[in-house]
Amino acid sequence: MRISKQMDAFVQRLVKHVRQQHDQSLKAIDAVCDRFVPHGELQERYFHWLNFAPSGNFGTLMQEIYEAMEPFTGELIVVTLKN
Questions:
Q1: At a CB cut-off of 8 Å and minimum separation 6, what does 78 contact?
Q2: Is the pTM of this model over 0.70?
Q3: Helix (H, G, I), strand (E, B) or coil at 77
Q4: Taking phi first (over 0 means left), then psi (-120 to 50 degrees means alpha), and beta for anything else, what does residue 74 get?
Q5: Which of 18, 29, 40, 47 has its CA 20 to 30 Å from the CA of residue 2?
Q6: What would the pLDDT profile of 9-41 be if each residue is shown by its tens digit?
Q7: CB proximity list for 46: less than 8 A, separation 6 or greater
Q8: Buried (b) or exposed (e) across 12-51, using 16+ Cβ within 10 A?
């Protein structure tokens, strides 16, 4: 009986730990999704492209975007802009 109770307590602690890890993973995934899809919209539809050129160097920004574009693939493209 004593071993059974100890085993039950161990299983409960293990389940609690796994749930906490799962919740942390889901929060991390949600944070990444919020970066790419803010307020349920794709980032390029939510933020204006001028937000990404605070220095006023629009020519370089447009060149980077143009080089990264592949319009006929039908896939989402992630462009990392340099400051």
A1: 36
A2: no
A3: coil
A4: left
A5: 18
A6: 999 999 999 999 999 999 999 888 887 777 777
A7: 38, 39
A8: eeeeeeeeeeeeeeeeeeeeeeeeeeeeeeeeeeeeeeee
